[in-house]
Amino acid sequence: MRNLLIVLSCLFVLVVTDNAQALQAGPPPTVGYMKLFREINEAKGKIVLINFFATWCGPCKLEIPGLMALRKLYPEKEIRMIGVSMDTDYGQLRAYLQQTPVNYTVYHADAQVAQIFQVGSLPKMLVYDQKGTLVVNHSGFLAPEQLKNVLDRLVGEHTPGNAGRPVSTQQQTAAQGNQ
After folding, report:
1. Residue 129: CB partners within 8 Å, gap ≥ 6?
2. Contact 124, 52 (CB under 8 A)
3. pTM of the full structure
4. Could you tell me which of 100, 132, 166, 170 has the fewest CB atoms within 10 Å of its CB?
5. Each residue of 80-99: pLDDT tens digit?
């Protein structure tokens, strides 16, 4: 019985820590490309959305409220949302997040992330389906309505009666834009 209580306590701490990280006021942890790949792999069964941004990027700051609204529409059990800051000034990122607290996990990228994920311009949006396949690779501002259409379609694929329906070419084209 005591062991069960210890295990349950540890699980509770892990869940609270994971959810609290997205809402923390403190500095986000630095992430490397291997951790991002692990997150994508471990989220099989969920859609994974990765938004590369910087606090000095105007279009990036325009995307963030839309991402926060989408987070409210889709629970964590369906979509794993990750923001990856490409800021070189860690203090500026920390100040931005204190002023604009987001409701999804945010990391600060290490030096290799941009190269491995081919982040040539910002913002950049990657969306992986529930099987871990990259379905959206978009550079530049992505309107929340366009992203919502893609997410709705991907979520709908895994509801009863919709299995196997692919994301339409029109939705992929609209969401991918400049690859």
Report:
1. 47, 135, 154, 157, 167
2. yes
3. 0.76
4. 170
5. 999 999 999 999 999 999 99
